[in-house]
Design a protein that fits this description.
The chain is mostly beta strands. It has a single domain (about 50-185), classed as Jelly Rolls (Sandwich). The chain is built from no helices and 13 strands. The strands form three sheets. Strands 3, 5, 6, 8, 9 and 11 form a six-stranded antiparallel beta sheet that branches. The protein is elongated, with a radius of gyration of 24 Å.
Amino acid sequence: MSKLETNQVDPSTGTTLTLGTSGDTIAIPSGVTITNSGTANNFGGVNTPAFFAYLGSNQNISTATNTTVGFNTEIFDTANAFNTSTHKYTIPSGQGGKYFITLCIRRENFNPPRFNYQVLKNDSVGLLNGENAGTDSGAYYNSTQGSGLVSLAAGDVIHVLVYHNNGSTKAIMGGQANTYFGAFKLIE
């Protein structure tokens, strides 16, 4: 192995300098600082796959019944893994890891004793739960919001259930700012 010592290396032709060839490893020893004064491409990874969906219009929810929230409109879905018919997201092949999940459910003009959501994994495991109990203050258009970090494996399926016990069928509000669900994979 030889050692080359120099202060600058420039390509002899064109504008690209290539270090090594396919299969080589370029080692940066501990304590070395890399300073970038130009453009850095393809470093650090990306927070994908990711999706963001919302309930397109109001949805009626029967009293005392866990009901799947009908997120039927996508803003984005980087892996085409959210199903707007079943309202479920399937972790793509090779994309298991830690995910950040966020959601909000806004109820229409009703004030139940109990109003809550659950994010389920594979139809049975509760990942996240949240509740917004009714009050006598008249704040009937409250939202129940939540977020959290969860570990998911490729093939896991997540979706949201909502529940209220107001005594009759009531609605949750549609619209991107009212009732939404999204997630993205963390860079590890």
